[in-house]
Design goal:
alpha+beta, Rossmann fold, 5-stranded parallel sheet, 11 helices, 22 strands, about 30% helix
């Protein structure tokens, strides 16, 4: 792997923030709300269990909000006697590349990496073209490092100070218990049926898949996920998802998230979205899916990815890549998918890339379904078993 970079700016920035940490009052929380300070300390202690002298890389944007969260995490890490480094890059969108300096910093394999971004961390130019080999092929170094157990991490695309302050300092004992139980039950099923008052009625095959908890437990190498935490998610078995999804909460689009005023109806056959109907939000979703297809074609034409990859990314722009169940009891629907998908009493489906590495795409567009009833079918269940009824876990 050869990446031509100049580290002078990165080193100067690192030195700058290290020196500023010695200025009384700069990184000690006095410039932040107490709720933000409390949340940052919870992330460092309860989520990551940061230890003395651990190397921690925080990647952020210099935007108001993300900057304050990143600095509060820097300060909390210093309080844990760790060795944090804070690196800023410009805001990145769905199809933008991560700066080479950031990739170089990741290649040093710090023990902990935090991505606090206004939108995205960005695509990995080298990874898309050449890939990284491990248990499977990865097109992003960040993904390879945490999936291969080389680092602990969390990522917070679209995070705001309001969301961070409200949803991070939570009872992780309750969250982790809910996640463990739901994962245990979902592992027994061959398929999952989801219905909702707005008209969702879809069956998702999960045979051969492993549901994963996003429970805020990133205390061991390889532990990684979102902050805020609070969901169990699974990649559908390829070609097994059939039915109708009616999104009625919020939806992620290429230009950001929006509240859904008129429900979006997506007809799904053999794992792919065949039609999208509804109001203006449905029009925007169709355009976002189409952009995923067109950008895959563009990268293939330009030689940035192989032609075979371009065809795969084009096809999977319409795949149903995820079913997730929200479990964070302090989260609420605010048209910010980082928080919305964690809301207790909801579930979400993603159109685009999955998390198992066998249905890659350039997009991953989550949409919220409110008050679902979730039923596990087949496998070790002789009869159906509900785990959520009208938005409430059956064991509550």
């Amino acid at each position: 792997m050869r990446i031509r970079v100049s580290l002078s700016r990165f080193k100067c920035e690192t030195l700058l923030y290290t020196l500023m940490s010695e200025i009384p009052g700069f990184f000690n929380g006095k410039g932040y709300s107490q709720s933000l300070v409390k949340a940052a300390k919870a992330a460092v202690k309860d989520v990551l269990a940061v230890r003395k002298d651990e190397h921690l890389l925080i990647i952020s944007n210099p935007n108001p909000g993300t900057r304050d969260i990143a600095m509060a995490l820097f300060d909390a890490s210093l309080g844990a006697k760790a060795s944090p480094v804070l690196a800023f890059q410009g805001e990145k969108g769905q199809f933008d590349y991560t700066e080479d300096e950031i990739i170089k910093a990741l290649s040093a394999e710090p023990q902990i990496v935090l991505s606090i971004s206004k939108d995205r961390l960005g695509l990995d130019r080298y990874g898309l073209k050449h890939g990284y080999e491990g248990k499977r092929r990865y097109d992003n170094l960040f993904d390879m490092l945490h999936c291969e157990g080389k680092m602990r991490a969390f990522w917070s695309p679209g995070i705001t100070t309001d969301t961070f302050s409200r949803t991070v300092a939570i009872d992780y004992g309750v969250l982790r218990s809910d996640c463990r139980r739901l994962v245990r039950e979902m592992k027994k099923a061959e398929s999952i049926r989801v219905t909702s008052p707005s008209g969702t009625d879809i069956t998702v095959g999960v045979k051969g898949r492993t549901p994963k908890p996003d429970d805020g437990d990133f205390r061991r190498p390889g532990g990684a996920g979102n902050i805020p935490s609070g969901e169990v998610y699974v990649s559908p078995t390829i070609g097994t998802t059939d039915g109708v999804i009616v999104f009625d909460g919020s939806i992620a689009l290429n230009d950001g998230e929006v509240m859904i005023r008129k429900p979006i109806v997506v007809e799904v056959k053999k794992g792919f979205a065949k039609s999208v109907s509804g109001g203006s939000e449905a029009d925007m979703l169709r355009k976002s899916i189409r952009s995923g297809e067109l950008n895959a074609n563009r990268l293939g034409r330009n030689g940035e990815i192989k032609a075979s990859q371009a065809r795969k990314y084009h096809r999977n722009a319409r795949a149903i890549g995820e079913l997730g169940v929200g479990l964070n009891r302090k989260a609420k629907i605010v048209a910010n998918m980082l928080e919305d998908e964690k809301v207790y009493g909801t579930c979400h489906f993603a159109i685009g890339s999955n998390y198992d590495g066998d249905a890659d795409a350039l997009i991953h567009l989550d949409g919220i379904v409110k008050s679902p009833t979730i039923t596990l079918v087949g496998g070790k269940y002789r009869s159906e078993k509900q785990v959520m009824a009208s938005g409430k876990l059956v064991w509550d």
